[in-house]
């Protein structure tokens, strides 16, 4: 995929969510889509030196509110962000999948391909979403350990 086509797709995504197409928003989307792991705000700050901390915080916040990204916590309790599926919307996330925390490299992976069991709650309870965490060695770290 060419850079121009990627930028065009990110602009469409921002249009879909009624967000202005700013250079910082497009850069954050590009960075997040290029990773196969969730990423934290400090990690983004370390590679996006021209976007200040407050602007980055606001971008992540509005992306989460609009259903573009979702928040997942790592083993240290640090918030990480990952791209949502297309069926997420404003204030309504549908990212009920396993989040895998690697105990070696500390990366957080969204395992979207795993089917989760039905959640049978007691009477009167109504789930609006849930998160399932697993921890251990990711495929890269597991290969290195062998």
From TrEMBL:
<dbReference type="InterPro" id="IPR043135">
    <property type="entry name" value="Fur_C"/>
</dbReference>
<keyword id="KW-0804">Transcription</keyword>
<feature type="binding site">
    <location>
        <position position="138"/>
    </location>
    <ligand>
        <name>Zn(2+)</name>
    </ligand>
</feature>
<feature type="binding site">
    <location>
        <position position="102"/>
    </location>
    <ligand>
        <name>Zn(2+)</name>
    </ligand>
</feature>
<keyword id="KW-0479">Metal-binding</keyword>
<keyword id="KW-0238">DNA-binding</keyword>
<feature type="binding site">
    <location>
        <position position="105"/>
    </location>
    <ligand>
        <name>Zn(2+)</name>
    </ligand>
</feature>
<feature type="binding site">
    <location>
        <position position="141"/>
    </location>
    <ligand>
        <name>Zn(2+)</name>
    </ligand>
</feature>
<dbReference type="InterPro" id="IPR002481">
    <property type="entry name" value="FUR"/>
</dbReference>
<keyword id="KW-0678">Repressor</keyword>
<dbReference type="GO" id="GO:0045892">
    <property type="term" value="P:negative regulation of DNA-templated transcription"/>
</dbReference>
<dbReference type="InterPro" id="IPR036390">
    <property type="entry name" value="WH_DNA-bd_sf"/>
</dbReference>
<dbReference type="GO" id="GO:0003700">
    <property type="term" value="F:DNA-binding transcription factor activity"/>
</dbReference>
<dbReference type="Pfam" id="PF01475">
    <property type="entry name" value="FUR"/>
</dbReference>
<dbReference type="GO" id="GO:1900376">
    <property type="term" value="P:regulation of secondary metabolite biosynthetic process"/>
</dbReference>
<dbReference type="GO" id="GO:0008270">
    <property type="term" value="F:zinc ion binding"/>
</dbReference>
<keyword id="KW-0862">Zinc</keyword>
<dbReference type="GO" id="GO:0000976">
    <property type="term" value="F:transcription cis-regulatory region binding"/>
</dbReference>
<dbReference type="InterPro" id="IPR036388">
    <property type="entry name" value="WH-like_DNA-bd_sf"/>
</dbReference>
<comment type="similarity">
    <text>Belongs to the Fur family.</text>
</comment>
<keyword id="KW-0805">Transcription regulation</keyword>
<protein>
    <submittedName>
        <fullName>Transcriptional repressor</fullName>
    </submittedName>
</protein>
